[in-house]
Design brief:
This protein has 8 helices and 11 strands. It is of the alpha/beta class. One of its GO terms (biological process) is rRNA base methylation.
Length: about 260
């Protein structure tokens, strides 16, 4: 049976713990493990810190507060390179959350929320912090589901002008930025097949996915002027919730992660 994964948020530093050390899992994660999942003495779990540390632990005791664990093994998983980044346009009906959930399970390393000109959903004022917190919660849950030791970071929401500046910096640092667009003349799969090395050696790979209403031509021009390239994802027009997942899968396969 696959060991369940829980996120440690206590005072100890997981990467400094070693075999036979004892650690307590309390708080929300501990309560969920002990009360909801009803994990008992003698069972095994994985404890992660979200930054690459994975502890394989045996349950020594349980309480309403959580679990007391004995560390059996510590593994430090290196961060994947190149980084896979998803710039996801804010979308209605929770489609943006569906997108980042699926992409986290596939293996995306960072998520940037983008408030496009055509985004119906707007993260203005206090909604920005609430929206980011919601995305962080979605990403954490998806990372646990996928049993990842690394939890993708969620950036602050950006508008189109700020995104163009960000894209330019990524390109100058040796990264590739790809805009998923139905009017692209080349498909991502054909580009990857013709020149896989340029992707495996890039400093980062970024997928830009617009909202349900698409992108304004001015936005596309700004991003292309900053160094981004248009790519297609096949003959069918994909929703905002699925385009990133298809692109991330193709990139992950090229990188040998699947």
């Amino acid at each position: 049976m696959t060991r369940p994964v829980f996120i440690y948020e206590g005072d100890l530093v997981p990467c400094e713990l070693d075999a036979d050390d004892t650690v307590s899992l309390e708080g929300t994660e501990g309560h969920h493990a002990a009360t909801v999942r009803r994990i008992g003495v003698g069972e095994w779990i994985d404890l992660i810190d979200g930054h690459g540390t994975r502890l394989t632990c045996e349950v020594l005791s349980t309480s309403k507060k959580g679990l007391v664990l004995r560390v059996d093994q510590r593994v430090i998983e290196p961060q994947a390179t190149p980084q896979l980044i998803l710039v996801q346009g804010l979308a209605k009906a929770g489609r943006d959350e569906q997108a980042i959930e699926a992409c986290t399970e596939i293996g995306i390393d960072q998520v940037i929320p983008w408030q496009s000109e055509y985004s119906v959903v707007r993260w203005n004022g206090s909604k920005a912090s609430k929206g980011k917190a919601k995305w962080e919660s979605v990403v954490r849950a998806a990372a646990k589901q996928a049993r990842r030791a690394w939890i993708p970071s969620v950036g602050d929401v950006v508008n189109s002008k700020a995104l163009a500046t960000w894209v330019e910096a990524k390109r100058e640092a040796g990264g590739k930025v790809l805009i998923c667009h139905e009017e692209a003349t080349e498909s991502l799969s054909s580009i990857l097949a013709s020149d896989p090395t340029s992707f495996t050696t890039a400093s980062s790979l970024t997928l830009v996915v617009g909202p349900e209403g698409g992108m304004k031509s001015e936005e596309v021009n700004w991003l292309q002027d900053a160094g981004a390239s248009l790519v297609g994802l096949g003959a069918n027009v994909l929703r905002s919730s699925t385009a990133g997942a298809v692109g991330a899968t193709l990139l992950s396969a090229t990188l040998g992660r699947l």
